[in-house]
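pipeline/complex-builder :: batch 7 item 3
reading input block
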Amino acid sequence: MRVYIEDIGRHEGQPVTIKGWLHNRRSSGKIHFLILRDGTGFLQGVMSKAAVGDELFHLADHLSQETSIIVDGTVRADTRAPSGYELDVTSFSVVGESRDFPITPKEHGVDYLLDRRHLWLRSERQQAILRIRHEIIDAVRDFFNSRGFILTDPPIFTPAACEGTTTLFPVEYFEDQKAYLTQSGQLYLEATAMALGRVYSFGPTFRAEKSKTRRHLTEFWMVEPEMAYASLDDVMDLAEDLIVSMVARVLEKRRHELSVLERDITKLEAIQKPFPRISYDDAVTRLKSKGHAIEWGGDFGGPDETTLSEAFDRPVMIHHYPSAVKAFYMKPDPDRPELAMGVDVLAPEGYGEIIGGGERLADLELMLQRIKEHDLPQEAFEWYLDLRRYGTVPHGGFGMGIERAVAWICKLEHVRETIPFPRMMYRMYP
Ligand code: 4AD
Ligand code: MG
């Protein structure tokens, strides 16, 4: 019977068939140790000459890394094995050869690996990261679905900017119309929220980022909830609950993958409510006291965020930024109009911003003014202005970049390992 390695424990003592690839092989005179992988896990197969006969045994002398093979054997419990089981091999057949697999157990440089990303994905570490990514996405979906949020997918082709014109990707095709790849579905989610109350989207997002940092991709995946009748506090509460449930889920279901990555679990176990909430004013004071060259009014750079987020054992929410450094759609604080009622959530351990959001500007006149101030084409925003013309309400939401969340939860150096095929300013291949 064909079984998956992840289910092997249910077949102790039974004959089974594993369909997979040879991850690695060690051989002594009379025994081959085959590390098999099938996408669900790794399993050591033990092949003795006595069990398979001379001919098959010698065939196995030449089995090389990543050869696809179908292996028959009997499952045996073995307390020394990482999975708790081994396979006593009785037979095998080769499906596809693999000569000189370019990624060997030795160390390779990251550019070498990225050029071979399609093969690099087969490594145990990359598999662990992608499984955790999957778990995070699944947890995010469950979180919103179980709270009555309706998934509404915004368009990818858009006629205007949402997050500033400097990171727009133009698309040539549409007649008489400027078109860009979406930077955020938010504006459309504001429309669907006015129809459905609580909505979210989860999809690809594009930013022509000129910055080559460990936090930036040109194509990434963002989850964006939006709520009608919501305040900045509601937005912060939601962000906090989302992060707590996401981390709890990974801890519950992906312990093994976290251990493959040698992740310090105690750091994740500390992710509990409440998260500290500090104002931009306070954040600037903290940074100055630590010697950062920031002046009130400036946006935080990567190093500023790193310092702020290192000060806490859980995510920190920074709210009330100067309007001047934030997007046109943010509601000004009625008491201090120079401040925007926005929030950034910075992940701990120096990871910096993983969530940006806040309360939206709901007033028509002020919105018209902002569009002018930001030099945005009003025609392209008429539909958006309609949301303020027909039954406007206080509302808000946020966006979380999945790759940044994965990088933090997995404690990776760079977001490039968090997505199957990363896209960056200097990388389009494979
Ligand atoms: O802070 P941002 O730009 O906010 C928005 O786009 C809002 N319109 C979202 C909303 O309120 N609905 O982006 C949100 C998040 C960031 O916190 C970050 O996690 C991620 O998206 N992000 C990126 N991730 C990877 N590479 C990039 N270049 C990113 N730019 C933003
Ligand atoms: Mg932001």
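note: The pocket of magnesium ion (ligand 2) is lined by residues 344, 353, 356 (CB under 6 Å).
queue -> next item
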